[in-house]
Amino acid sequence: xxxxxxxxxxxxxxDAPDAFWHIFGNLMALVPWAALLWWSLLFLVVGxxxxxxxxxxxxxxxxxxxxxxxxxxxxxxxxxxMSRAQPPPLPxxxx
Length: 95
What we know:
It is a single chain. By secondary structure, the protein is mostly helical. 62% of the residues lie in helices and 0% in strands. It has two domains: 1-31, no CATH class; 32-80, no CATH class. The chain is rod-shaped, with a radius of gyration of 25 Å. The chain crosses the membrane at residues 30-54, 60-77. Keywords: Membrane, Transmembrane, Transmembrane helix.
């Protein structure tokens, strides 16, 4: 923890009014943004494939974007949509 605090406060005057923004910028510089981008794209692609397979392409993309790999479980647990090729059933008593 001391090492992280040292990296976050490196070159920052803690008495300055904008010290928060300097510390925030130092912390954001430590985040592996490229890896996060590629993992997120992978999660979206797999979610799209699973959604397409289940007949819910955009729902798969949305769940994967929101929950990542947990969204895959959500889309796989949802039932497939009913086919709309069947006509509606007749009311009772009619033949």
